[in-house]
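Follow-up to my post from last week.
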Amino acid sequence: MKLSNKRFTALFAAVSVVGLIVTMAGVVTPASAAATYKIGVSNSWAGNAWREEMVCAIKAEASLSGKVAKVTVLSRNTDSAGQSADVRSLITQGVNAIIINSGDSSANNPAIAEAIAAGIKVIAVDNSITAPNTTLVSNDQVAYGAAGAEALAKAMNYKGNILYMRGASGAGADTDRDTGFKSVLKKYPKLKVTKEVFTGWDWTKGGQLANQLLAPGKFQGVWTSGIDYPVVQAMQTRLKGKYIPVVGADNNKFVGMTASLASKGFVGIVVPNPAIVGGAALKVAVDLLDGKTVGAKNLLTPVALTYAKNKALIDSLYFASQDANFSSTVSLKGYTTFTPAQLFRCRAPQDDPETTS
Amino acid sequence: MNMMLVKRQSWNIGIVLIATILGAWQISRLPVFGSYEARTFLLGILPIALLSMGQAIIIIGGGINLAIGAESVLINCLAARFMVGKSFIACVLLTLLFLLVSILVGALTGLIISKSKIADIIVTLATSFILIGLAMYIQPSPGGGMNLTLAQMISGKGSAFLPPLITLILPLVVIWLPLYRSRTGIAMFAIGSNKDSAFLSGVNVDFTRIKLYAVGGLFAGISGIALTAITLSGSPFASISNTATLNSVAGAVLGGVALSGGVGGLTGPALAALILYFIPTILLNYGIDPAYSQIITGALTILVVLAGGLIRNRGKKN
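User reply:
Got it. Predicted complex:
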């Protein structure tokens, strides 16, 4: 009883000290006084786990930057006319910078040109856009396609048939990945794409396609544009437990399968496509508003990971607490400062502070 | 006489009221409201307002066109594909040509429906797939463009809100009013109310329907051209045409057009597009999941259909 009392006192003291430090830090840091930037976010695809995580990374990094007063997120499933309307809506709300994940590489350009004319910084995240005077922050999708293709070629011993499962036709990332993929494939004449399909980055559709197409001996490898673990699941039934190499992204479940099925002969090739690139976009937006010089293209270059070579890293990328399609890269060196917990909390600067902090 | 006018316009007055409330709500959240913001609103509603108007004409005539969004996407892709890099004069001529194409596509749809006697909903569902396929063939991936001068004449530039306003109102004045006052206009309401009695009264039902589908197609074409001017590109996606079609039906219904046919006008659907624009915009700005705006739009549509039916039934009894 006495001990627990002591423990309680110690805990209380520790909490108050931490609380005091946090409060002081809040007072001392000039950042909180200078939290004036208003950031607008336009996202063309809502209800997609990757995009939601991207938005959360923007919010979390904005809260930590101390320089952002408000993050306005316009996130919905819409066409280019709708997204252009959202961009204009952000202009009318007087934001200082717009971070846009554009559903179309050129259709929002007129609205974006109006934003730039109004002195607003425009940062394209994830999907590149053709509008001039904008800054791109993205995973290098050409390198994504190439890195996965190179690792797949090696895993297939540079020969055999590939099932090529692309994303959505016409999307900037899909076109770029295709460029990277084909550039590698050209080097290996014995590797052939015998079937090319589009999953539309739809998990259900990807699973259905894999179930229809996979047959023993038909393919020696699969390249996916991130719709990865349903393919591995399909192999368990369609190939009767025989696995062929699969290129996927850093989706939580795929990462987990790459680790757990390695002993059964499965070669999973993890090419991270971090959703928290949103946090990097926020940092670039703040830098631009601070008047710093930032290059027009900021690309994060992915590296292909296999369990044979990168065991520790892949193990660290699996989060048992998160969903199957959670993009499990949780920090980007030089760009993001949030902890995984802060990312999961998904709190924007204008939201009510958590009672726990 | 005046009472008559108020009664006839009561639906439109109601819509204006709702749109004004929503508009005031949205404007109150903006730091400033000037001509740029007005243009933003207009560009937000322009494609869908035009499409709702086209759908309204067809629904008034007792039909429904599930391919109207696909017609608009097809014209969008045609325009973006062939107008990119062309001179102003060439783009104007191409616009006229593509509007003619949209009339023909509409007329052909009407012809198939009239001659085959298959339900509108089936035929237009089928044509929607064909038209999207054609659009994908013409413009396989998003891109293309339009002469900037022409685009700015249609959608304005900076804070010039008059061009999109004119693009919205001109078809109403130049196409709808003459149609409404013509014999075809009377025939449209007649076949929408009761096809058989219209036929027995000497109305050429088939020809009228073909004409209505042609005019509906023309509105879809104008919507497609407006979309090209706004986005300076063409996007051949079925998802765009599906959403647009559903919104056009919602817009027509909210605008006072009875799904049973024979009742309604075009001013209502044009105004209803404002409501369809404001609901998601306001919710989005409050950080509310956009899926809820779909729920609200859907619920509103059902309510309006129910309320409209009740009011009309009471009117019949009296």
